[in-house]
Amino acid sequence: MNELIFPPEASLKIEDIRKVNQHIDIYVRSQQSEASCPACQTVSSYIHGRYWRHPQDLPWIGLTVQLHLEVRRFACRNEGCARKTFTAGLTEFLAPRARRTSRLKEHHLATAQALGGEAGRRLAYQLGMPLSGDTLIREIRQAPEPPTVSVRVVGVDDWAMKKGHRYGTILVDLEQHRPIDLLGSREADEVAAWLQAHPEIEMVSRDRGKEFIKAATEGAPQAEQVADRWHLLANLREAVVTFLQHKPVCLQ
After folding, report:
1. Which stretch of DSSP H or E encloses residue 68?
2. Which site among 45, 80, 81, 236 is 20 to 30 Å from 249 CA-CA?
3. Distance CA 124, CA 128 (A)
């Protein structure tokens, strides 16, 4: 059972499981007999002491789960090493000083990226892994940038840093359905320079603004330019409104 719940390298053994209302407490003890010092790599089997950690873990059938983990601290026997004591074997499963396991953090990050702060908070509570909306937003901000991949179909549009005063450009991979870059302005030269750096682009979806038309023409001459769906519908609405405004009798 221990191997099914915890990674083998952690050498953890379940001592007790208790259910209290909608909460499960799992008491776990480290069984690691020796470990390598992270500073000098000297293997030590001398146990300097033990201490407790109480991280939150993945829920079980909707019930919140908290681990009560007794961890062994080893002493480095290398006299020349600056590291006197250390804990090993938990880095991948539980980061130092972390209050949540790494696998729970991954689930929180996926929830935050899909739903954002407040909506993510409500879902996380229902799933038994409660977390505040502010912390979910911090998870997004602290997450590493996804690896840069080639983009074939790119969407170009402006975004407001300060609405009515300052705008930038957002570039979206329309096949992966995710933003890939933000530019500090919507000037044609800057957007064109970005497009030139990605010669693999085959299609540019944009609005009908002159700056983006110029940027796409100069920066990606090999790509086909199309008007994006939102602006097509917006233009259609404006055309219908203009047409009907000249037909008051028909409207009556």
Report:
1. strand 63-75
2. 236
3. 6
Q: Which residues pair with 111 in a beta bridge?
A: none
Residue for token digits 């957002």? 170
| Rounded percentage of the chain residues whose pLDDT exceeds 90 | 54
Q: Which two tokens stand for residue 63?
A: 């019930």
The encoded tokens of residue 185 equal: 């302005």
Containing 112, the helix (H) or strand (E) segment is helix 102-115
Is the CB of residue 58 less than 8 Å from the CB of residue 107?
Answer: yes
> How far is CA 250 from its chain centroid?
53
DSSP-assigned states of every residue in 153-189: EEEEEEEEEETTTEEEEEEEETTTTEEEEEES---HH
Q: How many Cα atoms sit within 13 Å of 104 on the Cβ side?
A: 24
- Which helix H or strand E contains 243, and what residues bound it? helix 229-245
- Asked whether 53 and 1 are in contact (CB, 8 A), the reply is no
Render pLDDT for 162-191 as a digit per residue (tens, 0 to 9). Answer: 888 889 999 999 998 888 899 998 899 999
pTM: 0.67
Query: Tens of pLDDT along 13-45?
Result: 899 999 988 899 999 998 888 888 888 988 988
